[in-house]
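User: tokens in, sequence out, please.
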């Protein structure tokens, strides 16, 4: 792949107004290449079907829309940044969130009552009430909000279809989602080969090194790349650590979900939290990091970072969720030590 291919992005030649089949790269390669989401890309989300998940079109549509709506709710702090969702969960807090969301919708394409309902659910810490709106309203509304969260005007759904799935049911659901959610739908996977009603397009993306986890490995069935500078909306440990750090003045200057490139020819990779000046990296490990290949890849990456002068701190999801104050204390000691010694390079 040439530098121009990488710069253009595999998504650049795909239509945004219809369903197409995609081949030439794996879904993991596509996911890894948009982490974090490149500036020129639409808001891209992946939905991985299970072989038994597509018995009826209506069931598949409902499953996708439910997950789009959950993701939109999780991302509320990104599409409604002027309201502090950490303020509280009282009736007054929820009413304020709803009012702010409706005000946002007044000057945009968003549907006020629906945006208000999702803001209310986000503050209350619960799932949205599904029966309050039609599935068409929920599909279009959640897709628009996910695009807004990523600061994009358009969204695209990569539908990962395994073998054994009913191609007719899945194809009809893909067409419905494209029409009613107003987002591109790109189908990929062994099960997509039977959907010959859609044109097929070849794309290319860089290979994913063995052992590297992507957002598809971390989040199922819906997954999407993080927004550079923010914790991933679907990661409770990342959000918990962000909030635990945000109250401390010494923690300023940090970056969340930022790419690091250690050399001109090296492959860039994303770290969870970074103090660039102090050269401190914090990683939060989910259960996927326990796999032997992933564990070995983590050690290789840690060695590369340490050789380049970075200090690497690793915490498990449980450590961050159960005792965030201990994690913050450890991070503070590391950052303070680096600051007291000056430039660590």
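Assistant: Sequence out:
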């Amino acid at each position: 792949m040439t530098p121009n291919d990488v710069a253009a992005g595999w998504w650049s030649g795909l239509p945004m107004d219809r369903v197409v089949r995609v081949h030439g790269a794996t879904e993991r390669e596509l996911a890894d290449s948009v982490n974090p989401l490149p500036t020129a890309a639409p808001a891209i989300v992946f939905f991985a079907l299970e072989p038994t998940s597509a018995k009826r079109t209506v069931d598949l549509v409902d499953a996708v829309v439910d997950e789009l709506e959950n993701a939109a709710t999780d991302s509320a702090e990104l599409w409604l940044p002027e309201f502090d969702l950490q303020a509280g969960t009282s009736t007054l807090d929820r009413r304020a969130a709803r009012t702010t969301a409706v005000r946002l919708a007044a000057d945009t394409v968003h549907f006020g009552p629906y945006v208000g309902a999702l803001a209310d659910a986000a503050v209350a810490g619960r799932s949205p009430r599904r029966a309050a709106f039609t599935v068409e309203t929920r599909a279009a509304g959640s897709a628009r909000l996910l695009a807004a969260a990523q600061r994009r005007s358009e969204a695209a759904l990569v539908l990962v279809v395994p073998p054994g799935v009913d191609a007719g049911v899945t194809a009809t659901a893909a067409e419905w989602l494209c029409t009613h959610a107003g987002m591109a739908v790109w189908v990929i996977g062994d099960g997509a080969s039977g959907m010959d009603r859609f044109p097929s397009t070849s794309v290319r993306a860089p290979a994913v090194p063995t052992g590297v986890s992507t957002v598809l490995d971390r989040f199922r069935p819906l997954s999407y790349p993080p927004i550079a500078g923010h914790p991933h909306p679907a990661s409770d440990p990342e959000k918990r650590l962000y909030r635990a750090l945000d109250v401390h003045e010494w923690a300023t200057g940090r970056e969340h979900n930022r790419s690091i490139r250690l050399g001109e020819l090296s492959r860039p990779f994303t770290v969870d939290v970074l103090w660039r000046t102090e050269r401190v990296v914090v990683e939060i490990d989910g259960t996927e990091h326990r796999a032997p290949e992933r564990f070995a890849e983590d050690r290789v990456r840690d060695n590369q970072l340490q050789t380049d002068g970075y200090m690497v701190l690793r915490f498990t999801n449980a450590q961050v969720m159960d005792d965030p104050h201990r994690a913050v204390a450890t991070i503070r000691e590391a950052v303070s030590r680096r600051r007291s010694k000056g430039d660590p390079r």
